[in-house]
Amino acid sequence: MRRPLDVFDVFDVCDDVANDARSEKHEITEEAHRLLKTIKQMEASLEDNKPNPKYETEDSNFKVTYPLMRCLQGLKEKYNAVSKLHRERFEQVRSE
Question: Which residue ranges make up each domain of the chain?
């Protein structure tokens, strides 16, 4: 037969859930910061005197914001776009 939960058991469960949430928040925030850093590095490598009508770096004022999941999704989309352009530029330079 199971014994009833006491206040300390409930506290331990709540504490575990809170720790898990903090850990997940930290991991998501770190991933967002890594993506942001990579995006900025790729953008910097793309900047030159040749204007590219397909891409503008003006919207590179990205920040890690809340809600984190929405922010992370936006950063992933931005990363995919910049990464594609970065690959295209690499191929262009390589073939010159």
Answer: 32-95
Q: What is the pLDDT, as a whole number, of residue 80? A: 97
Token representation of residue 35: 């993506």
Q: Is the dihedral of CA 86, 45, 52, 79 positive or negative?
A: positive
Residues with Cβ within 8 Å of 45's Cβ and at least 6 positions away in sequence, in order, are 86
- State pTM to two decimals: 0.74
Enumerate the H helices of the chain as residue ranges.
7-46, 68-95
Q: Find, among 46, 41, 43, 39, the residue nearest to 74 by Cα.
A: 39
Cα separation, 94 vs 69, in Å, equals: 37
- How distant is the alpha carbon of residue 1 from its chain centre? 47
